[in-house]
Every structure is written in C-alpha cells, then in structure tokens.
Design the sequence.
C-alpha cells in the first residue's frame, strides 16, 4: 500500500491487504485500520488515531505524511504501531460526524444509539484496540495519541486533553507532550465517552487527545504550525533523539461541564469567543429552563463552547488553571 489516506478515502478494499519491506510488515485490517510491526522487537506499542471527526483534517494529513515513508520502507519503525483513521465516512463528507459524535460513544456507550453508523464504527475501533493491546507483551509500554483540531480558534493553538486517569501519568509521556509543542494540557476530572478515555481506562494506556489548530478542509491547512508535533511524532515512530522542549505546557483542570439538554438551551457566548477565554466569577454562561451555569471560581476559562450539540451532550467545559488555583488556596 502506497497511500493509506487515499486508500481510505476511496472506500475500496486494497488489492493487497498485507506486505512487508526491509523494516516492517504491515496489515490492512479494515477500512482506516492498519497495523505495522517492526522486524526488530520493540518495547513500545503505540496507537495513533486521527479523523475521529471528519472535518478535522490537519492531523490526518500529518499522520499520512509520517506513515508514507514507513510503508515505502524509507524509514525504520521504532514502535509496534496501530494507525486508525477514525471515521472514514465522515472524512469523505468533510463533516464532524454523519449521525452522532463518535467521540462520545466509546466504552460501550455506542449501545445506547446502536442504529447509527458511528455506533458500528465505535465498536469496530474498540475491537481493533482490544486485538492490538491483547497481543501486547506485558513489558510493552502502551501509548495512544488521538489527533484532533478544535472547531474554534484558541488562545493556545496546540493543546492536549488528558482523560481521567487513576494512575500517575508516566514522566516520559508528559515529556513527549511538552516536546510536541503543546502550550497547554487540560485534565478531565470525570469519565467520558472519548477514545482516549477508553484506552486509558480499559487498557491502562497513557493517552491524550491532541488538539492541533482549527478545523479546515483538506488542502487548506498550514502544517508549519505543527512542526514541533510532527518532529516529536517522527522521533517516536522512526526512533532517534527527541527534540528539546521549547516551553512547558500550562496545566488546566476541568471545573465544570455545561450540558445541553434540549431546544431551550442558550449559550451566552458569541461565535467569536475563543477557546481559553477567561470569565470572572459570577458570569452567566448558559441557561436552559431553570438551570443556569455561572462561573464559580475566581476565574474560569471556556473550552469547546458549542450550543449545537445533540441533547445530553457537552456544550462546553469550564477550566481553572492549576497554579492560579493553588495560589487562591494558599492566600
Ligand atoms: O472544538 C470543539 O468544540 C471540539 C474539538 C474536539 O473534537 N475535541 C475533542 C476533545 C475530546 C476530549 O475531551 O478528550 C472532542 O470534543 O471530542
Ligand atoms: Zn475532534
């Protein structure tokens, strides 16, 4: 296979479903699902996913740029690798999703909407992870990097979203995220239906949703904005020294979630509000019937505000910055 992205977008089964070159063997497992195994044993198993949302194309282009030299045998492979293009149907249509947001359906939540296309795909992706991690040696390190872009512009162009994790985050993983040029890390404090939460909770993988810029159609992305992430991924995949950390990411925690329940939901933020915009205590953020969402802490930052989500889903997160919170507690 020469071009995994074009193959996936074509919607066709490849003529050859497996192959090998000087460095690795590869196997096409299903639409958008490809495993690559180096000939030399490795201590790391990596899941690299993109295109979970079909309109988030920059990470898909980055992933394919990194993958193509591997498939051509031009680069060695330093990890056991599972590459996933999450939602091929949505990628073809250029839409976030076809019928339902797939990144709310992992961990078996797909069973609650079992008749939609994304429910079948979420199950297929869960199975792919199960097979991949199942064949994992106990000594192998498990990482999952799920590459996205945000709908809105952001005060931090590149940032990571960390699922709730009962274990301490591995130091080498945190170091890699800093090397990748992430300006901020957002830590969830409750479970969710995201892909990274699934791999962290069910397979003890160190996982992160990487948000790389703003969603644009294929061919319109300025990939130079993501050169640190590209270099960090290249070092991980091909082996070799990691680049230097340019700046440590700021740390934010989720303070509260704004949820839309139905037609009466009103979000008191305009379309121009950027991710990580700060709001002072007492600001009315959203309302629906008798429910009102206010800023509770001295200052909270909004992330992913979106009044157009399906009923029952997250319409925004409010964050606190970790060192600001520590300062407030010690005053
Ligand atoms: O910009 C937006 O509103 C959404 C961007 C996006 O798809 N973000 C992920 C974050 C997943 C997480 O919380 O780890 C999502 O909403 O699925
Ligand atoms: Zn996304």
Sequence:
């Amino acid at each position: 296979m020469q071009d995994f992205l074009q193959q996936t977008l074509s919607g066709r089964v490849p003529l050859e479903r497996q192959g090998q070159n000087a460095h690795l063997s590869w196997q096409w497992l299903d639409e958008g699902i490809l495993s690559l195994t180096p000939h030399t044993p490795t201590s790391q198993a990596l899941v690299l996913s993109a295109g979970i949302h079909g309109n988030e194309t920059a990470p898909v282009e980055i992933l394919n740029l990194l993958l193509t030299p591997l498939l051509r045998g031009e680069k060695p492979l330093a990890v056991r690798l599972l590459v996933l293009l999450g939602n091929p149907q949505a990628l073809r249509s250029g839409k976030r999703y076809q019928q339902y947001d797939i990144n709310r359906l992992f961990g078996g939540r797909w069973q609650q909407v079992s008749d939609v296309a994304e429910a079948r795909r979420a199950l297929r992706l869960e199975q792919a992870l199960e097979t991949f991690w199942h064949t994992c040696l106990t000594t192998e390190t498990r990482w999952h990097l799920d590459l996205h872009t945000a709908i809105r512009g952001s005060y931090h162009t590149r940032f990571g979203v960390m699922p709730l994790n009962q274990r301490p985050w591995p130091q080498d993983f945190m170091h890699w995220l800093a090397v990748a040029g992430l300006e901020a890390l957002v830590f969830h404090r409750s479970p969710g239906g995201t892909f990274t939460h699934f791999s962290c909770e069910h397979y003890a993988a160190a996982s992160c949703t990487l948000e790389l810029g703003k969603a644009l159609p294929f061919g319109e992305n300025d990939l130079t904005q993501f050169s640190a992430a590209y270099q960090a991924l290249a070092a991980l995949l091909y082996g070799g020294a990691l680049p230097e950390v340019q700046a440590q990411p700021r740390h934010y925690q989720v303070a509260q979630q704004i949820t839309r329940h139905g037609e009466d939901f009103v979000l008191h933020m305009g379309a121009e509000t950027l991710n990580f915009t700060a709001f002072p205590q007492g600001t009315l953020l959203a309302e629906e019937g008798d429910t009102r969402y206010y800023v509770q802490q001295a200052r909270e930052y909004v992330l992913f505000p979106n009044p157009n989500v399906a009923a029952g889903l997250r319409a925004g997160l409010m964050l606190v910055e970790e060192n600001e919170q520590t300062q407030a507690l010690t005053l």
Remarks:
- The chain has a mean pLDDT of 95.
- The pocket of LFNQLBSZ (ligand 1) is lined by residues 53, 103, 148, 150-152, 161, 194, 196, 209, 304, 306 (CB under 6 Å).
